[in-house]
Specification:
single chain, 240 residues, mainly alpha, 11 helices
Length: 240
């Protein structure tokens, strides 16, 4: 059996008190252990639990009970409701903030008001789980602890995720762009923020050193100078 009755222990109490079904049949119908059903019958388990009539609640029929009483091996079948009950969609309320983090909310609200004034009060409420009067008091500096409030990133405080903050900022930017007619200012894509750093300009090529001058033999240079300064021979004019 795939389905179990509502309040199985209370249903087992009623079946034990009002029917002749075996412990195994009741345990199988209520999805309990046979020893647990025996403990309920002995008064050791489920003390103080009031029995729930499965026939009145539409989970079991009298015919099924009579079949089970007539045959101890028969397994009861739960009655399926002919009317489908729509499942109510849960509406997402304000974000729950742990008690240990609630004293940090004014700092996070002050940070959002300063660095993202485009965010609406409803977005701030959803991000950090606060109330509109609190936001207004921090904005007007009328909060009872205004002197101690400082700007702290709510992501750092663990009040919201970076993804939720980015999505809220993008929605606020789109809303402002529709109101003003300007292009929305969104966050830079990761392809631009993760590009490699620009390389420094290459150093200009150094000019090649000029060819070295020829080496001279000191002895040859000295001999040449002496030859130029030697005394003139006979018949030659002396230099002035």
């Amino acid at each position: 059996m795939s389905d179990a009755p509502l309040m199985p222990k209370a249903t087992a109490v009623w079946l034990i008190e009002n029917t002749g079904l075996t412990f195994d049949q009741i345990a199988d119908f209520c999805r309990l252990h046979p020893l647990e059903v025996k403990g309920i019958a002995d008064g050791d388990v489920a003390q103080g639990i009031k029995g729930l009539d499965p026939v009145a609640s539409g989970q079991l029929t009298r015919d099924e009970i009579e079949k089970g009483e007539a045959d101890g091996k028969y397994r009861l079948k739960i009655s399926q409701s002919s009317t489908g009950i729509p499942v109510a969609k849960s509406r997402r309320g304000p974000r729950y903030t742990p008690v240990s983090r609630r004293q940090d909310r004014p700092d996070a609200i002050f940070w959002l008001l300063r660095y993202h004034p485009e965010l609406s009060d409803a977005q701030i409420i959803k991000l950090v789980g606060t109330t509109k009067p609190t936001i207004q008091s921090i904005r007007d500096r009328t909060h009872w602890n205004s002197q101690q409030i400082k700007t702290v990133d709510p992501v750092t405080l663990g009040l919201c995720s970076q993804l939720d903050l980015d999505l809220a900022v993008q929605k606020a930017a789109s809303r402002m762009s529709r109101a003003t007619g300007e292009a929305p200012k969104t966050l830079l894509p990761a392809s631009q923020t993760t590009t490699a750093a620009p390389q420094p300009p290459a150093e200009p090529a150094r000019p090649e050193p000029a060819a070295t001058e020829p080496e001279y033999d000191p002895d040859q240079v000295l001999a040449r100078l002496q030859a130029l300064r030697r005394e003139p021979e006979e018949g030659e004019d002396k230099p002035d």
